[in-house]
Amino acid sequence: MRIDIDRLTKRYRGGVTALDGLSLEVPTGMFGLLGANGAGKTTLMRILAGLLRPTGGSVRVGEHDVTTRAGRAAVRRVLGYLPQELGVYPDLSAREFLDYVALLKGIDDRTERRRRVGEVLEIVALAGDAGRKLKGYSGGMRRRVGIAQALLAGPRLLIVDEPTAGLDPEERIRFRTLLAQLAGDRTVLLSTHIVDDVAQTCRELAVLASGALVFRGTVEELTSRASDRVWSVITAGPAPTGGTIVSAVPHAAGMRYRVVAPVSPAAGAETVEPNLEDGYLALVK
Question: The domain 3-223 is classified under which CATH number: 3.40.50.300, 3.40.30.10, 3.90.420.10, 3.80.30.20?
Answer without folding.
Answer: 3.40.50.300
